Amino acid sequence: MTKLTLGSYPHMLGFEQLERLLERTAKSSEGYPPFNIEQTADYAYRITLAVAGFGEDDLSITVEDRQLVIRGRQKDDGGERVFLHRGIASRQFQRSFVLADGVEVGEAQMENGLLHVDLTMSRPETVVQTIQIKKG
What we know:
By secondary structure, this protein is mainly beta. It is built from one helix and seven strands, in the order αβββββββ. The longest helix is centred in the N-terminal third of the chain and has 12 residues, at 16-27.
C-alpha cells in the first residue's frame, strides 16, 4: 500500500512544511494530561488541560517554532512524607499544539485543577492578484 502525502497531490504546492508539522504532532500524541479544545467565538479558541495536583509554578507555557508547548513538572517534596499507598502519580508532561499562521496565544489561567489557554486567530484578508501575461 502506498502512503499518500500532501506532496503527491499536484494542486497542493508548498505544503511540505505542513506535512512535517502533522507528522511531528502525530508522534507526540501521548494521552496525559487529557485536554479539550473548544471554539469560543468565530476566531477564538480555548485549550483546557486537566492538571490536578499542579500549581502555577509547576507549569510553563511557551511558543516554540509555531508550536504551543505546555510543560508540567512537580517539585519533589524532599522525601519528607511517608506514603502507605501512593495512587496519585506525580509525573511530568509535555503537550504540544501546532499553531497556524495568524494564531496568537492570549492569557492562561488556572481554575479548579484546569489550565485554560486562550487563542485568537486574525481574520484572513482576501487578496486578489492579477498576473499580467507577457508576449513572448
